[in-house]
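Section 5: illustrative case.
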């Protein structure tokens, strides 16, 4: 996948993979539908909390190709190991990690996308695909799907199907492609809703007496959310429920505390809308 073309081909997909690995291209098997071979039991549903070293594709702790692009490897011993044998039996194609060799693939899915690329992008090495073309550039960028109609960008932390070396001279990744994956500034987030919680019926003081108790509860909620490695939606709701259950009836919980919990949830990928819904559901559950 550099400028050279393999000089030999061993038979079968494993032979293609070994040839590519010899050139320094990290590869993995794909089953029908261009999907990676199924996850191993130890890592299914992210049970391992994503242990592979994302800076070093192929460093997954498991012997099988269980993390898609991160399982791609250049090690012939791994590719031919008994642990990978079932994967190759299921394989329908070979995939590689473009970012792992400093490349970006502009995946053009149809004729209109190809026409756009020819008008807009500098010529480079191209590879025919089932429906369109892959345009290969030197340089990496954050991967992104559907940057425009029929155009995906495949580079870091993704895999691309190997369809041959292609034709033409590979050129440097243009700023035009980099600009496609730069997200527009997000609109300002709406201010957190003020937490409307009733004061004690008797109008008495907060039963917790000390502000430190509330601070500790909110801090523990933030920590629980930020440490979540899976089931984030559920953990956010459960945390909101726990905080409101302990502190939501006395009137001491403010929008500042809620904003801290919302920020922790958003740092894990939750949207403002989901945070608001989870908070409202917790209030409803507690009758607040």
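Designed sequence:
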């Amino acid at each position: 996948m550099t400028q050279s073309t393999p000089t030999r081909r061993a038979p079968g997909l494993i032979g293609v993979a070994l040839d590519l690995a010899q050139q320094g291209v990290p590869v993995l098997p794909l089953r029908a539908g261009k999907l990676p071979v199924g996850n191993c039991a130890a890592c299914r549903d992210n049970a391992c909390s994503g242990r592979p070293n994302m800076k070093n594709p192929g460093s997954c702790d498991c012997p099988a190709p269980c993390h898609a692009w991160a399982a791609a490897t250049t090690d012939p011993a791994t590719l031919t190991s008994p642990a990978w044998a079932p994967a190759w039996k299921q394989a329908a194609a070979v995939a590689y990690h473009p970012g792992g060799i400093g490349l970006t693939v502009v995946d053009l899915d149809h004729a209109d996308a190809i026409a756009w690329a020819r008008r807009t992008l500098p010529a480079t090495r191209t590879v025919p695909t089932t429906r369109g073309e892959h345009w290969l550039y030197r340089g990496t960028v954050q991967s992104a799907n559907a940057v425009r109609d029929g155009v995906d960008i495949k580079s870091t932390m993704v895999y691309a199907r190997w369809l041959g070396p292609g034709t033409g001279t590979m050129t440097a990744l243009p700023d035009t492609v980099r600009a496609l994956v730069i997200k527009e500034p997000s609109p300002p987030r709406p201010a957190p809703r003020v937490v409307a919680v009733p004061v004690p019926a008797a109008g008495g003081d907060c039963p917790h007496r000390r502000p430190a108790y509330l601070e500790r509860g909110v801090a523990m909620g933030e920590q629980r959310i930020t440490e979540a490695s899976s089931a984030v939606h559920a953990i956010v709701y459960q945390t909101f429920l726990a905080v409101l259950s302990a502190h939501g009836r006395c009137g001491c919980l403010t929008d500042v505390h809620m904003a801290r919990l919302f920020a922790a949830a958003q740092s894990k990928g939750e949207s403002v809308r989901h945070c608001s819904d989870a908070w409202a559901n917790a209030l409803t559950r507690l009758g607040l």
